[in-house]
Amino acid sequence: MTSTSSFITSLSCSSSSAMATADDTSSGVLQWLSFIFLSPCLQKLLLAFIDTLFLIILFLFKIQKLHSSFITCNNGGSAINQPLVPKPTKTSLWFKLSLLISAILALLSIISSILAFTQNTQMPLKLINGASWLIQAISFVIITIFINSRKRFQDSTHPIFLRVFGIVNFIVISLIAISGIVRLVSSTELSKSGDLIASVFLPFSGFFFVVSVTGSTGITVIQESDEHEELSKSFVSGWASASIFSKTFWLWMNPLLKKGYKTPLTIDDIPTLSPEHQAERMSLLFERNWPEPEENSNHPVRTTLLRCFWKQIVFTGFLAIVRIGVSYVGPLLIQRFVNFTSGKSNSPFEGYYLVLILLVAKFVEVLSAHQFNFHSQKLGMLIRSTLITALYKKGLKLSSSARQAHGVGQIVNYMAIDAQQLSDIIIQLHAIWLMPVQVAVALAILYGYLGPSTVVTLIAIILILVFVIVATKRSNRFQFNIMMSRDSRMKATNEMLNYMRVIKFQAWEELFNERIQAFRESEYGWLCKFMYTVGGNMIVLWSTPLFISTVTFGSGVFLGIELDAGTVFTATSLFKNLQEPVWSFPQSMISLSQAMISLGRLDEFMISKELEEGSVEREDDVNTTTAIEVQNGSFSWHDEPSEGDIIKNLNFEIKKGELAAIVGTVGSGKSSLLASVIGEMHKISGTVRVSGSTGYVAQTAWIQNGTVQENIVFGSPMDGNKYKNVIRACSLEKDLEMMEFGDQTEIGERGINLSGGQKQRIQLARAVYQDSDIYLLDDVFSAVDAHTGSEIFKECVRGALGDKTVLLVTHQVDFLHNVDLILVMREGMIVQSGKYDELVQSGLDFTAFVSAHETSMQLVQMDSTTPETITKSLSHNTRNLKSETNEHHKSLERSQSSSIIGTSKLVEDEERETGRVSSYVYKVYATEAFGWSGVILVLLLSIVWQATQMASDYWLAYETSEDHAASFDPSFFIEVYAIIAAISFILMIGRIAFSVLLGLKTSQKFFKQIIYSILHAPMSFFDTTPSGRILSRASSDQTNIDVLLPFMMILSLGLYMSVISVIIITCQYAWPTVFLLVPLGWLNIWYRGYYLATSREITRLDSITKAPVIHHFSESIAGVMTIRCFRKQDRFVQENVDRVDGNLRMDFHNNGSNGWLGFRMEFLGSVFLCVSTVFMILLPSNVIKPEYVGLSLSYGLSLNGLLFWALYTSCFVENRMVSVERIKQFTNIPSEAEWLKKDSPPPPNWPNHGSVELRDLQVRYRPSTPLVLKGITLNIQGGEKIGVVGRTGGGKSTLVQVLFRLVEPSGGSIIIDGVDISTLGLHDLRSRFGIIPQEPILFEGTVRSNIDPIGQHSDEEIWRSLERCQLNDVVAAKPGKLDSAVVDNGDNWSVGQRQLLCLGRVLLKHSRLLFMDEATASVDSQTDAVIQKVIREDFAECTIVSIAHRIPTVMDCDRVLVIDAGYAKEFDRPSRLIEKPSLFGALVQEYANRSSGL
């Protein structure tokens, strides 16, 4: 054995040393072998021989390659055998690692060669050593080039000679490395640096050995079939195809981060989710695990989520245990390090072992911590995805009463807030049960050091926890109230956005502002309480380590326990370790209680009553002759029978191919009857049979945000001929010609840029295109003019739908001659049924209905001239109209071709900033409340607080040092320590309290700014901005500014202060570490920039992709009757799934980038700690004292966590700053004109006459669009009654909008009673006019709040108004009378009743100038006659401008204005216009003759 060791340490290259010790032949052979394999000289010669042999073989291989290629070229085979385009290749991580390792081996060989030549060793050994490493270096440089070239040659395996070389080379390197390690351990001086490098060489050579054994190059040639597969996979997240190694270290994120660093990411750059994470799969999983009815589960959502995701919860729990286990290694090593530096160690190498243990422990801790975070966030994302899709599916199944009970705003909150809260709880879930475990382990360790004083520590921890739990319960209660107030505010905001047109017409902006501000004030009150309570928690928790240290060391001193540096700093390190569980436990309790509230809300929604699928018996029997049959049917809109029925005793049968009409007065149950047939009402009794597919056209048009074509086709396959026929049948051809981009014109939210008639005809076209068997049409003629109505009846109802079964609700008596069956309704019952003539003779309800119509028709017939004159005028006008239409069409084509600039998109893509959040945004946020003085104060408090924290630890180190042991005064020591702790506590209170105040003031200012800006925005802003876009700012962005930003900024600032303090203390005692600060700082800044470039854009894209999910949800809920009737649920569910996936891929990749950054940053911190620890070991004890080693380590152990969390919170703040940026975008919306002009108010009684003069009035909706009104000039005298008629989409409603200045004139002027309205404030103008708009809008509240929103009138006046508008009996019959409920959109009132309530508003206001836009479109002739009589009596002296489609309505007007294609074609007395050839005469004749002509 001695001889063996002598060979290892021998400097000789001579064989005589081997021979000298050989006694016999066998031992001689052994000696020779030992000498060859263990002598440093012979080892190097062996290495040089193998390398030289390899280079010779490689040279011969290259010669042979060149020769064969030369022969091939001469034979002309090259061009034929080689493919024209080389096949693409793909390199794996294996290839890249092989290349990297061979380059590292070349570099290490070069370093070894240089060291060998420069060292003072004997000459032959020096030369052999240097030369062998040089040849090794040349070999590996060539191998590196060779491996890289394999890609060009598309080789999947390495050649055999390279593999043999790799194996043999590894054996020789192993011998050299083992010999070197032996020499290092035995402290034999040969070449310490050379031996160190040789031992470093070994693991790299080991990897190359594995490469040689496997032979794989890591290159794969992509075949054509694979290429297509690659392309399809290329845009799926890297996670889907990543290896375990790649997933462990987030290498799959590299391509996206690299791309994001080079250019700002767009939506198309973010890969889609892996199939295993997609919403569709999650939705099916949720349905599969939903509890069966017999299980009687009280908490079905919770049960289902646990069944779906229990494995992931267990896995994250395992990661949490690993992380906590290794986090205690650091504190346990402090005592060992202190002992080692004070010379109490057994081995000189112990320090190195300790550093190695520390590095491994830190590596495992860092990796497990970030894997835990990533997997928890991924699980949270999957839960959110699952819940949103489940909520959406449920929303499409809800019964009408359940839908009304929850309300759209509330359901949106379930998606936006509750699902998010359940997603967020996952990362904090394990903290609840791990906290007691962590505390128990820490106390057990402490007991070993401090004995009985650990009991005091336990009491202190319990006291802190009790305080925090009590405060948490309070904050939880406040949080619940915040959510309730936020729900109310969001509901009010949603309602305001939906009905902004009506609000502006009535000048009610201030009213709605007060209403929303009242909800906000309530929310803000609870928010303040919540923020200060959580602030109190933060104060206690940040002060925990100092407080516990004070009482523990105080009790230790009192009990006479000896305190040395090792004990004290192990204890403080453990107290810092305890800070996290004690801090996260109450946070987790808050989140858990919030999650329980959210689960309760979701349970309530998910078990809400669904529509009964079986209430309608659907048959597809082609042989049956009956299309619809109802027997003894009683139906209610309420799910509970106790609420009573709405329609009852229904008995009717409609044959296939029949056209049946339903008539009756307002509120008689006509629309409810249609709803009962398609199964939308709760069936109390009876049977309903429907044979065939159904199509439904609602009374209130439901239009999606999309193009006209998308709305009509509605997801069905496109059929060009069928599409054209449908457009023609629904009289949409001329409308599409007038639209700048035809059927590709984008329709705004809720059809906001279409007239009422256009909306109605587009949804009729949608129904016709679906080609159903049975059609249910709810009052489709009310919103269109007489001519268009007749066309639709002839071309569509009797034409395109001629062979279909049609059930038509109508007030148009003229069409009733041509129907097969008439059902007459009164008070929810069918009181008569039969054909027209039978019913007229019966003398009951129908007769009264017809006689009311005939009375109104007499007005038309009285003014009619001889039939000949009318016929002439009609034919003349038809010709005129055609030629004018053609001219208009041509001019429109010209205007379109000349306006090259423009876009079919009405709703523009959401504006987003790119690049880093500007410093201006930070400045705006920080200085909004108190300017720069507030910022300086917060910074100052933070710096002084951190200084007190450091002072306490310096005091500990000073007092527990060995030098000071003799003069140690326990009572003085603890007094000073307690005083420092108290000062720190007071500073903490000031810092947190002021920061919270600053955050609250800022959020309230921002809220007021955005509400002010939205209320002052012009109508065009709401036409082009989806409400989801505004709502997302009012909900999630406002929540970020209310809660997250203040706390995260406090946290980020505190963490950065802590990082600086750790670096100061570490560098102070391990001074060589200073040199590491520059690379550490540079890496920090570089990593932050590299990560943020991607993370920031993904956060922005996340906000942008979130709004469409909310918008689609609210849009679907609004049109759920139409969706269900056409059986389109699957298509809409798929659309929701696509939008959810589109949003969650942002979330997933953001979490991935967090994990990528976190692991790298924390590991860097750990390496910094270990290097500084090595310096502490190497530096002599007179330079660094043991107590300062303890101080440095107690600080340094937390460096990796502090470094990452400081960086992460600053990135989190930057990402949430996007909310400030987004809200700021909406506080700078161009405002409409002033509401009130103090310098030019109108006269107090203006308008006193009501005269209106239009001078060359021109209007366009947006700068790039064509004129809608094209130079109208006319004069209306005060007190005149003006009727406005014309084709749908001609500009009638636009005229009303420009008189109210909802749209500002592009040219010309409007003079009312001598005042140019453009000089007035908008509220001065709008509040003086009365209007009954085209769409009857009611707001959520009561009858009183709807008819008199401002509260100016007495109950007596309100009852009188209700009596005049025929609603007295209806309201009196309700239990609440004037306080009877009106639900969202007035859905619990019929459309006719809503129109009458709108009339009631105007009757109360009694303006001098009244505008009526289709005011009686939704009421029957009887009610219409009564309303017209009321208006004539109550507004006898007022000027009335009435837009109407019913010709009798305008026959008794003083003058009639005919608007066609934006021009005022005619303006005269009705009788005069009828006498001569005129457009009006043609309309009158059309209306008078239409029943006979159909």
How would you characterize the overall build of this protein?
This protein has about 1500 residues and is α/β, with parallel strands linked by helices. Helix 4 runs antiparallel to helix 8, helix 15 (about 330-340) packs antiparallel against helix 16 and helix 38 runs antiparallel to helix 39. Mean pLDDT is about 80; it is low at about 1-10, about 15-25, about 75-85, about 225-235 and about 865-905. The strands form seven sheets. The protein has a six-stranded mixed β-sheet, sandwiched between helices. It contains 53 helices and 26 strands. The termini are far apart.
Uncertain segments: 1-8, 15-26, 76-86, 224-233, 864-904
Largest beta-sheet characterization: 6 strands, mixed
Proportion in β-strands:
5-15%
Distance between the termini: 120 Å
Number of helices: 53
Helix content: 55-70%
What is the 3D form? elongated
Structural class call reads: alpha/beta
Strand order of the largest sheet: 8-11-12-6-13-14
Number of strands: 26
Give the radius of gyration. 42 Å
Average predicted local confidence, pLDDT: 79
